[in-house]
Design a protein that fits this description.
single chain, alpha/beta, Aspartate Aminotransferase, domain 2, Aspartate Aminotransferase, domain 1, 2 domains, 7-stranded mixed sheet, 13% strand, binds D-serine
Amino acid sequence: MIFDTEINEIIKEEFKRQNENLEMIASENFTFPEVMMATGSILTNKYAEGYPSKRYYGGCEIVDKAEVLAIERCKKLFNCNYANVQPHSGSQANQGAYAALLNPGDIILGMDLSAGGHLTHGSKVNASGKVYTSYSYGVDENGYLNYDEIEKIALEVKPKLIVCGASAYARIIDFERFRKIADKVGAFLLADIAHIAGLVVANLHPSPFPHAHIVTSTTHKTLRGPRGGIIMTNDEELAKKINSAIFPNLQGGPLMHIIAAKAVGFKYNLDESWKTYANQVIKNCKVLADELLKEGFKLVSGGTDNHLLLMDFSNCEFSGKDAQIALEKAGITANKNSVPNEKRSPFITSGLRLGTAALSARGMKEEEMKVIAQTISLVLKNLNNDEIIKKAKETTLKLSENFPLYKDLKC
Ligand code: DSN
């Protein structure tokens, strides 16, 4: 046996980093030990191209059971008729959905990346904006989706597909209204709920069903499962197209260990305890937003309805990048983010996105959010003061020690 000391050290080092820092990247979370056990299991050894009972290789009868379980739990969780649990990521899920609905060159309309959308929603640097003819919609001067404006754009560009869903939008998304717009222009509606899925399944955000023709998500953000993607629909014909769009069109062998881990994650999501967690994520984010507003900071849309908020430094001398670097030194991990009508480059940005899903998974609540908001404020008001940043680091370290990660896990 070869013991890989180098990788072992890297894992230990990363474990320490995750433990000692406050993770506020809105798309990250701490999954359950049982999910990690499945991802580290012998299921990784099995090739199973195809779908349950329709595989191209022998010996798939047992992994079939894992995939069926994941599919059934996924359908129950999202209250839909068909689920494909094979996409390796949210991006693959979106590509699969596009391939199921569109031909190259077809017109898609999605949310602009700098307004809070996602690369795969038609950005010109992504395949979604290269293979398809993409147009975008943004947010209004208050940072909200303006459905009348979206309808106007849709009537102009006549998309075959409208994509709704976001990576940095802190407000409720009106899927019903999106469907009305889609129907008016004869388009399909795809809802990418990668960010909010964990809130949707707790009934804390309206569901995209029955409005969207196809729903995609990741499983590792607010859902807190393994890293991966899923695609769902209520339409039998679309379900068949989605399946062939994922395999054999886009992917090869499914990751059976990840599919099993998705099933484990869904079991957690289906448990009564899930609502308590998801509710705390939102409560924590509201407190964080309120405290930052009290400290005089500007937030895009003026607050939040979900698990994230977007600080707006458009009128500040410092950038999103400056804020990210200073907070990192103070033990808070977050990401710089473009804001609507961004004037700085995507490498600098005028915003900072903060999320509460991971801290809530550690058990932090409103009181801790207040301390964190004050610490963020202190750091951002004293970006170049090493003494103050050192003090802030002591505060975040103490908080981390009070809410240790994976207490019983030997790493
Ligand atoms: N990288 C994810 C996020 O941070 O929102 C989206 O893919």
